Amino acid sequence: AMAAGVPPFRSYGRGTYWHALNRSRVDEKLRRQPEDVVGDMERALPAEIVMGHVEHHPEIAAALQEMEIRHLLIIRDPQDVVVSLLHWWKRHDEIDAWPFRLFRALSTDEDRLRFLIEGWKSEVVPEDWPRDVDFPDLAMRYQAYRGWWRDPACRIVRFEDLTDESQRPRVQREIAAFLRPGMPAAEVDAALERMEERADPSRSRTFRRGTPGAGRRYLTGSLGERFDEVAGALVQELGYEP
Predict the structure, then answer these.
(1) Which residues, 6+ apart, have CB-to-CB distance to 156 below 8 Å?
(2) Spatial CA neighbour of 191 closest among 5, 2, 4
(3) Smallest Cα–Cα separation from 75: which of 12, 149, 10?
(4) Rounded CA gap, 66 and 99, in Å?
């Protein structure tokens, strides 16, 4: 994690998760609950950075506040997110969740993208599959993180700024100031240097290309129209170009 370049913070590669995909595991014993996330954070070491995908939940937010944990939320253009998901899901078939099963059952990338946009729709799944899988449409999946946007202990970071060499130094400085207010100037410069060393996408398990705007090449014709119906307002609300 880039933020691990700010002393005394360290990352040991541990993560925590609370989102629609891991709540829809086929094996019910693998479905996580908010208290699982709280437990992960309670086991974190002092100054440890814990990474993950965590939707907002009152129980989680209250626990983070009580533990005085600062958090960063990275957002990205939903148009690029849905295409990134397409490629990531195609590379990973080890996750046994109902949405993954349906995704793998579809025959074309257009159908897969439509599914990632629209979410789980009971009328298109096989008869012997569950009707009420927790995987809503793309806009609703974004809305599940909205509570963090209003949390003063959370800093919003745009993915596009992290991949833009002209913007990244500013964002790195803001992250350092957020994580450790009042850090001496000499330590700030050293931290920024370490953060830049860690800004290597090849180290990321999820990073593929990260080119801003690339998703629009896929969202054309009727698929683009469906995306606009589901998430067009969200794209504009987040300040991205539709």
Answers:
(1) 73, 75, 148, 149
(2) 5
(3) 149
(4) 34
DSSP 45: P
Extract the tokens encoding 39. Answer: 């437990």
Torsion angle, CA of 206/56/146/53, rounded to 10 degrees? 0
Q: Which residues of the chain have pLDDT under 50?
A: 204-208
How far is it, in rounded angstroms, from Cα 184 to Cα 155? 21
Length, in residues, of the chain: 242
Cα–Cα nearest to 84, from 217, 202, 197, 199? 217
Q: Hey, CA dihedral for 88, 92, 98, 103, is it positive or negative?
A: positive
Q: Write the CB contacts of 178 (distance below 8 Å, at least 6 apart in sequence).
A: 70, 72, 155
- The per-residue pLDDT for range 164-221, each reduced to its tens digit, is 999 999 999 999 999 999 999 889 999 999 999 887 655 544 444 556 677 778 899 9
| Angle of CA points 185, 188, 190, to nearest 5° | 115
Write 175-180 long-range contacts (CB < 8 A, 24+): 175/2, 175/3, 175/6, 175/72, 176/6, 178/70, 178/72, 179/3, 179/6, 179/9, 179/70, 180/6, 180/7, 180/9
Average pLDDT, the chain: 91
User: For residues 227 and 117, what is the distance between their CA atoms, to the nearest angstrom?
Assistant: 6
Q: Is the peptide bond before 8 cis (omega within 30 degrees of 0)?
A: yes
The β-bridge partners of 48 are 10
Distances from the Cα of 6 to the Cα of 48, 119, 156, 187, angstroms: 11, 38, 17, 9
